[in-house]
Design goal:
The complex is a heterotrimer of chains A (about 725), B (about 210) and C (about 325).
Chain A: H1 26-48, H2 52-60, H3 65-96, H4 115-149, H5 158-180, H6 205-233, H7 246-278, H8 291-325, H9 332-345, H10 361-373, H11 375-389, H12 398-421, H13 423-429, H14 433-462, H15 469-494, H16 510-539, E1 573-574, H17 581-587, E2 601-604, H18 609-626, H19 629-647, E3 653-656, H20 658-669, H21 683-687
Antiparallel strand pairs in A: 2-3
Helix pairs in contact in A: 3-4, 3-5, 3-16, 4-5, 4-6, 4-14, 5-6, 5-18, 6-7, 6-18, 7-8, 7-9, 8-11, 8-12, 8-14, 9-11, 11-12, 12-14, 12-15, 14-15, 15-16, 18-19
Chain B: H1 2-6, E1 17-18, H2 26-54, H3 67-70, H4 73-98, H5 102-132, H6 141-174, H7 178-211
Helix pairs in contact in B: 2-6, 2-7, 4-5, 4-7, 5-6, 6-7
Chain C: H1 7-10, H2 17-23, H3 39-72, H4 89-117, H5 123-132, E1 137-143, E2 148-152, E3 157-160, E4 162-166, E5 171-177, E6 182-186, E7 190-195, E8 201-205, E9 211-217, E10 229-235, H6 237-248, E11 253-254, H7 256-262, E12 274-276, E13 278-279, H8 283-292, H9 307-320
Parallel strand pairs in C: 1-5, 4-10, 11-13
Antiparallel strand pairs in C: 1-2, 2-3, 3-12, 5-8, 6-7, 6-9, 9-10
Helix pairs in contact in C: 3-4
The chains are: A mainly alpha (about 725), B mainly alpha (about 210), C alpha+beta (about 325).
Chain lengths: ~725, ~210, ~325
């Protein structure tokens, strides 16, 4: 039943041979040396400072939703950097390889990258940016913030949460591994059939792509089950549906999309896997296959996925804009309806990804109209944000700058999106750079929201604000880069330039391509400013310590506990009396954290099993890529065994005694006395030497009265 | 909201913080989560059945045998009866759970598991016959999806059987602890769901195949 | 028959800022979509300009409103401050109403445009043909890895990477691919249509002006995609007849057996055009049928790894091979 392969295979190592290590390619060799040095430094430093125990206890085995969220974000940042380097290489190649007289090097006729190599780069760029950068960043932030916003102590499934993280990480690691062992897929991140079938993609690249993708699908599906269950079942008492923070609403709608769409992707990729491994005929051109089936299945996931990415971004904007407008969000109910409308319509638009496949005009008309319908709730959101600023007091701090950038990008992206939805336009520039520029506007909107959200919630998680000076340089260079890269790209779209070219035949396009390269230079500078931003913030963290309410005008439950948040989130679960509970309490002069009479708190216990399952899943995927059947079987059996063993474990919970809660709470409050700070996300490693000051940031920061008159009563 | 804030709030009349908060109902949360999981699995099946619809045209046979030539009604009937009896046995096991009878639960589950194995044996025989005749997934696009749906469903039955084995062991060790009970409830959902899916398999793969 | 397009006269005068910017450089700017020379592409251009105009009507006021709100209600500015104000039925009605209205208008236009340029039977060409009468020119297009073969079934000739069409006459295409999905486009004449293996799609165009237009594949099909472009020569009907006659003199003939060799993966770096003077009559249908029965022209693993080496090999093979 197994297929016939091009190239050698042996039972011990499968298709893996020494030739599969691309040591003769100077680019990959350089990358390897860079990665190796970086790895040695990180691992060496961990060993040198004796931090392995800390890393293991506090991070690798953790089931704390905040730490898992932080790790998601770290994975996302690392992959974002990789994706950025990929983008840099594509743009450089396209700026060199223009016209028949352009120079060639390193085995390429034009430019410095062979078609095969360019193919791998843009495939990796697309997959990484969508699945391994944007998704982990958004999932990470949802992971941290949603339980805090609904007043929960953890997620519904803390163990599953860790498993989702490690599966996603395994997928990302697999993509990275493909740099140095074998190669990656070379036909675009969403895959083409029959191009991705064995006859046209005989190497292991597509297999890497497929299994990395599948791992992230598993991880994200688990994450979505977890977040929905958390939001539906674990809200603090008094938090009715219409009192839920708007970001939580966005998370709920986005995870409903993920829950229903990711399984379809699993099928789309699974059937491709059957074709490649077992020789079935799902997507082949002949033998009764149907290649359009793949496009349909993939984009039934693919388009909801786009809204899966953008709804949390909208949610972040809806949190940031009211905070920095010092005003209530305009049209809360409308915002909720709009989120769900976008989520709902997302299911009926997928065919616009292949308007040119010769569907009947009535079919194309239907999907053209449904796609335009998305513009209605999106337009409503834009107006609501504008009317949130209207009659407000807008403060232009960094999170707000990012949110407003996102708003402007949404206007450009939304307008060009409506132009794409107009099917007769799409006939002309489908697969062209106009579409590319459009969706980069949208994903940059997501990136801007994420940067805004990181600036906004960073003090909540780490206890200090990021500095503003370098952050603003970073912001403005991102703006410059975006303009210089993507405005010419819209013109190239008008030129009819298509995606994924490694050589540009028409020299008239050269000026535009050169301008985009200048834009990339701005982006490079922006990355440097970002590093400076992080470095200076970490260095000066003592200056920027904040209390519970870091920005002073925040509105929701996450600001009703200490910064950094203790492991148990809330010593007492808040009782919710209003929408925007924290703002409501501040307006009524009752905004103080409760102290005294602490109780034991039950929390889930750390476990290494999710990490091992992640490692084994990576082993399984690696074995399947190279068709090392014994290793695949071994990993699979071990995984099943681990899952069963874990189910017999009765010792999964732990109790934080009241004394410990009191110690942590007191330390957070009387930080200046220099006692032990709370076990926040950074743990004692970073902030053990520091003092925790409070009161600089807001009303809630310095609660001193030991027993306020409105102390909680037993219900 | 704005209306409520205009009047003066008396903090003494309000609950602001919860003491002795009992936490959330674990069994209810976990069951809800399992329903969500089953929704994802239902989506997988939906995508597979949609693929079946796409790959059921004459052109997808590619010269291979049509469904009517390969479907054996006797096997299909046998599989249906076994699976439904197995679900029934599991139902009795859950009735016994209500009265807290360990023997009843384990007994019902054992019968259910046994019938699951019988189901798998019938399915294996059926497929073995077809493979022996050279009717394999590689033959045509239609047969690819035909076997994929059957095997995917059979894999669920395998998982169910293993799960029941684990649960029998856990009941023997822990009795009806909260963990065991929520797993038994989830397993009930899972097992019934497989029977529901089988109704779809029977309708769309077997009945429709015979008619077409 | 000769189709004259009236629309082309009016629209280029109504150039919007976008087009103005590009005209600053040079007229042959390479911005193909803004220089339409065919009936279909001009129809696209017409609707495109309408679409952009309507969108700008919404977007520009929105941008102005945003910037105004940002400035007027900045902290320390002189905008009034109402922290509790969060709802207004009038505003809600407007914020739902404006997008709803816009989408309604655009949907109507979009549907109209789709029927006008529908690849299988473009409304504009059908109308023009009805008015002018006469027979269209038929062309069968086969995309291989990575070349275009244009078969003229009425004239029994075929041409590689070069399409010659008479001006003012509808040209109707049937398209298929041997291996993977490609996408056929001549940006100044006609939009895209997928070219799929084992299947047949259709497209149609009318060229308005004599000239040479570029065409290429718009869907990723492998290592040779960037070189998978062809020239479209729109010539007068008389010149077209002349070209057909000279092509029929070509000694090279194409049968399925020859096509089988021709369709092997080949990166057309040199722009290798070729003419076949005689073509097996049902070649197009036979190719579709063979692919449906499972015929593949696989990509050798080695060819994708180092392009220079592969090209050397390819050149040697080409010298030895004959079609």
């Amino acid at each position: 039943m197994l297929v016939h392969l091009q190239g050698p295979w042996n039972p011990l190592l499968g298709r893996l041979t020494l030739q599969q290590i691309p040591y003769e390619n100077p680019i990959l060799l350089g990358t390897f040396i860079f990665a190796a040095i970086l790895g040695v430094i990180v691992l060496g430093a961990t060993t040198r400072y004796g931090k392995w125990g800390y890393v293991w206890r506090e991070w690798l085995t953790t089931v704390d939703h905040k730490k898992i969220g932080v790790m998601y974000c770290l994975v996302g940042l690392v992959m974002l950097f990789r994706g950025f380097i990929d983008a840099l290489m594509i743009r450089t190649q396209q700026a060199i390889a223009i016209g028949p007289n352009s120079p060639g090097a390193l085995g390429a006729v034009h430019g410095y990258l062979t078609p095969f190599h360019v193919g791998q780069i843009y495939t990796a760029h697309g997959l990484i940016m969508v699945v391994f950068a944007a998704t982990p960043l958004l999932v990470g932030i949802m992971n941290i913030i949603v339980p805090l916003q609904i007043g929960a102590r953890d997620m519904a499934y803390p163990y599953l949460n860790a498993l989702g993280l490690w599966l996603t990480t395994a997928g990302g690691a697999l993509v990275m591994l493909s740099l140095f062992v074998g190669n990656f897929a070379h036909g675009g991140w969403y895959g083409f059939v029959p191009y991705f079938e064995l006859p046209y993609s005989p190497g292991v690249g597509v297999d890497y792509w497929m299994w990395a993708f599948q791992l992230s699908v598993l991880g994200t599906t688990m994450g979505s089950i977890n977040l929905i269950a958390t939001i539906v079942k674990m809200r603090a008492p008094g938090m009715t549906w219409m009192r839920m923070p708007i970001f939580t609403w966005a998370s709920l709608s986005t995870n409903l999309i993920a829950l229903t769409s990711f399984p379809v992707l699993m099928v789309a990729l699974g059937l491709l896997g059957m074709d490649r491994y077992l020789g079935t005929h799902f997507y082949t051109a002949g033998m009764g296959g149907n290649l359009m089936l793949y496009n349909d299945l993939f984009w039934i996931w693919g388009h909801p996925e786009v809204y899966f990415l953008i709804l949390p971004a909208f949610g972040m904007m809806s949190e940031i804009i009211p905070t920095f407008s010092e005003k209530t969000l305009f049209g809360y109910a409308t915002m909720v309806i709009a989120s769900f409308a976008i989520g709902g319509v997302s299911w009926g638009v997928w065919l616009h990804h292949f308007f040119t496949m010769a569907a009947a005009p009535n079919v194309n008309s239907f999907y053209s109209i449904t796609t335009m319908l998305v513009g209605i709730p999106t337009g409503v959101k834009v107006f609501n944000w504008i009317f949130t600023m209207y009659r407000g007091r807008v403060r232009y701090e960094l999170p707000m700058l990012w949110a407003l950038l996102a708003l402007f990008l949404l206007l450009v992206g939304g307008m060009t999106g409506m132009m794409n939805a107009f099917a007769s336009n799409d006939y002309m520039w489908h697969n062209g750079l106009f579409v590319v520029a459009h969706f980069h506007m949208m994903v940059l909107l997501i990136a801007a929201s994420v940067f805004g959200a990181v600036e906004y919630w960073f003090p909540k998680v780490f206890g200090f604000k990021l500095e503003q000076k370098w952050g603003k340089w970073f912001f403005w260079f991102m703006v410059l880069g975006t303009g210089w890269v993507f405005v010419p790209m819209f013109f190239l779209g008008m030129a009819g330039m298509t995606r994924r070219l490694d050589y540009i035949p028409y020299t008239q396009w050269a000026p535009y391509l050169h301008i985009t390269l200048v834009g990339m230079a701005f982006y490079v500078v922006a990355v440097l400013f970002f590093v400076a931003h992080l470095y200076v913030s970490l260095r000066d963290r003592e200056k920027n310590r904040v209390g519970a309410d870091a920005w002073g005008t925040s509105r929701n439950l996450e600001w009703m506990t200490h910064s950094p948040v203790p492991a148990y989130n809330f010593a007492f679960i808040p009782h919710v009396n209003a929408r925007d509970e924290w703002a409501w309490r501040k307006e009524n002069g009752i905004a103080e954290l409760h102290a005294g009479d602490y109780e034991d708190i039950h929390m889930p216990k750390n476990t290494g099993i999710p990490l091992f399952l992640g490692l084994l899943s990576m082993g399984l995927a690696f074995a399947l890529v190279w068709r090392i059947w014994w290793l695949a079987l071994l990993c699979l059996v071990l995984m099943v065994a681990l899952i069963i063993i874990r189910s017999f474990d009765r010792d999964t919970d732990t109790t934080i005694p009241a004394r410990e809660v009191e110690r942590v709470e007191r330390a957070a409050r009387d930080g200046s006395s220099g006692s032990v700070p709370p076990a926040g996300v950074l743990g004692d490693a970073v902030i053990a030497t520091s003092t925790v000051r409070s009161g600089s940031g807001g009303i809630g920061g310095n609660t001193t009265s030991p027993r306020p008159s409105w102390a909680p009563r037993n219900r | 909201m704005s209306a409520s804030t205009t009047q003066k709030i008396d903090p003494n009349r309000l609950t602001l913080w919860e003491r002795h908060y009992p936490g959330h109902d674990m069994i209810s949360t976990r069951t809800f989560g399992f329903w969500l999981y089953m929704l994802t699995d239902a989506m997988v099946y939906a995508a597979l059945f949609a693929s079946l619809g796409v790959l059921s045209h004459a052109v997808n046979l590619a010269g291979g045998p049509p469904p009517s030539a390969i479907i054996n009604p006797v096997y299909a009937y046998g599989e249906t009866i076994t699976l439904f009896l197995s679900v029934l046995a599991y139902g009795y096991s859950m009735v016994a759970l209500k009265s807290g009878s360990r023997g009843g639960v384990v007994g019902g589950m054992f019968v259910s598991m046994l019938l699951g194995v019988v189901f798998l044996a019938i399915a294996a025989t059926d497929m073995g016959h077809l493979f022996a005749q050279g009717v394999v997934p590689e033959t045509s696009g239609f047969l690819s999806i035909f076997f994929t749906i059957l095997i995917y469903h059979a894999l669920h039955i395998v998982v169910g059987v293993v799960w029941m084995l684990v649960m029998i062991a856990q009941i023997a060790r822990d009795g009806f602890s909260a963990n065991v009970v929520y797993r038994l409830i989830n397993l009930r959902l899972f097992w019934h769901f497989q029977a529901v899916i089988w109704v779809f398999v029977f309708t769309f793969v077997y009945l429709q195949g015979m008619v077409a | 028959m000769f189709i004259k397009n009236k629309r082309s006269k009016t629209w280029p005068r109504l150039v919007l800022p976008l087009a103005l910017l590009t005209l600053g450089g040079c007229s042959r700017s390479g911005l193909f979509l803004l220089e339409p020379e065919g009936l279909i592409s001009q129809t696209f251009y017409h609707y495109f300009m309408l679409d952009v105009g309507i969108m700008l009507l919404i977007i520009i006021p929105t941008v102005v409103l945003t910037i105004w709100a940002m400035w007027r209600y900045r902290k320390g500015g002189n905008g009034s401050y109402h922290p509790q104000w969060s709802h207004s039925y009038a505003i809600e009605a407007v914020v739902w109403g404006i997008p709803l209205l816009t989408v309604g208008v655009l949907s109507y236009l979009s549907v109209k445009a789709i029927y006008d340029v529908n690849p299988y039977n473009p409304g504009v060409i059908a109308k023009a043909q009805q008015a002018a009468g006469g027979d269209p020119v038929e062309v069968d297009v086969i995309a291989t890895d990575w070349r275009w073969l244009f078969i003229y079934p009425q004239q029994h000739i075929a041409s590689v990477d070069e399409l010659v069409v008479p001006v003012g006459t509808p040209v109707r295409f049937r398209l298929t691919s041997t291996s993977v999905v490609n996408d056929f486009i001549i940006p100044q004449l006609v939009g895209m249509i997928d070219v799929m293996p084992g299947m047949r799609t259709k497209q149609a165009l009318v060229a308005d002006k004599a000239g040479t237009y570029v065409g290429y594949s718009a869907d990723y099909s492998g290592a040779g995609l960037s070189w998978m472009h062809f020239q479209t020569k729109a010539v007068s009907p008389a010149q077209f007849e002349q070209w057909v006659q000279s092509a029929q003199q070509s000694p090279q003939h194409l049968s399925y057996a020859g096509f089988n060799r021709f369709a092997r993966p080949y990166i057309a770096v040199g722009g290798d055009q070729q003419i076949f003077g005689q073509v097996q009559p049902d070649l197009f249908d036979q190719v579709v049928g063979e692919v449906m029965r499972g015929k593949v022209w696989p990509t050798p693993m080695a060819m994708t790894e180092n392009m220079v080496n592969y090209m050397k090999k390819q050149r040697a093979e080409q010298k030895a091979g004959d079609y």
